[in-house]
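Hi U.,

Before I forget, here's the chain from the pilot set. I'm dumping it here mostly so it's searchable later in email.
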Amino acid sequence: MKEDKAVELLCPAGEYESLKYALAFGADAVYIAGKQFGMRTSSKNFDEETMKKAVAEAHSLGKRVYVTCNTVPKSKEIDKMPEYLEFLESIGADALIIADLGVLSLAKKYAPNTDIHISTQAGIVNYESAHMFYDLGAKRVVLARELSFDDIADLRAKIPKELEIEAFVHGAMCVSFSGRCLISYYMTGRDANRGDCAQPCRWKYRLYEENREGQYFPVEQDDSGTFLYNSRDMCMIDYIPELIKSGINSLKIEGRAKSSYYSAVTANAYRHAIDDYLRDKENYNLSPWIKEELNKISHREYSTGFYLGGEPGQVLENGGYIRNYTVVAISEDSQNGVVDIIQKNKFCVGDELDVLPPGGIPFIVKVKSLTNEYGESVDSAPHAMEKLKLDCGRDIPAGSLLRMKI
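Structure:
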């Protein structure tokens, strides 16, 4: 297949700040959810006013907003769908991400001018399924995560060229096929298929014999127990050429429940990798700093998912994240090497800070001095949201993230 120069970078936005950072740091499009019908109730998500604002801001930058309507709603819930779909069309949402056939039918009736993207929840793994959704009006299908490069290329070759393919390339993976899971509902009453997953797949498990009260038996010979279903995170930054050559139109990052910092770093890293490849395909090599950036966000052990064949495996040693960096400040303005900042976490004079400018390459600065809003020299910045002047001998663009290694 001929490669598309306009391959899209699609980033998550669980709330308005994340949307702003994703757009500023390189996303072509973002996907968001309202207060209902989205698969991440743990996110702040968007009420009607912030959703209007989000769509307007993205469009002012020439970028797009897709809205998730990909839960599996029950009959009493779906009664609310027509009004919601009409609202989404009225504010100019660029596409609706849909899993349920009933919702698809309603979308065609109540939002006829809004594109339809079929969610990964639909579990599309073959060209016949993709073609069926195309015949039903879909502009794009979001593939199940269980496909290899060869599978995707084969599917791409057998579907209409007008039908776009979207695929996840980074972020958390679900232990169940295409995110279809009942473990949470069974164990906690929280339905993953309606956006309320409690993630029991990440819990620590041991055996317990009913007649030996309080006596636990590790599944493995390890003092920390075992994590039976704890999937690794996906990271495909090393495979940008292969992703584009396989015919994927939109490279999607998972993470609507994650921080605005995560949205910014992942958007920036994948933006640079994509642009570097499209600029010079013959001589492309992934810049080491790009890969290193993805180790500066909170993540589980990385894998390549199913792309290279086989199963990505589980993290058996722990259920937590690897966290090596924390954001300590955001720059607002700078002049002559003195930066106006808003403090996020404590740091001190003499510390080295790792700066990530919007759309730029990270660099290191050293804190020479700090001055509070009263003009007083201080040795540290211990108060969250405090405004300070930071002398580091170098201007830092507004909106840059200042980080420190933990």
